[in-house]
Amino acid sequence: MLAKRIIPCLDIKDGRTVKGVNFVDLRDAGDPVELAEIYSQEGADELVFLDISATEQKRKTLADLVYRVAKKVNIPFTVGGGISSIEDVDILLHNGADKVSINSSAVKNPQLINDLAAKFGSQCIVVAIDAKQIDGEWIVHLVGGKVPTERKLFEWAKEVEKRGAGEILFTSMDHDGTKNGFANKALSKLSKELNIPIIASGGAGNMQHFTDTFKDGMADAALAASVFHFKEIKIETLKTNLQVNGIPVRLKKEL
Question: What is the pTM of this model?
Answer without folding.
Answer: 0.92
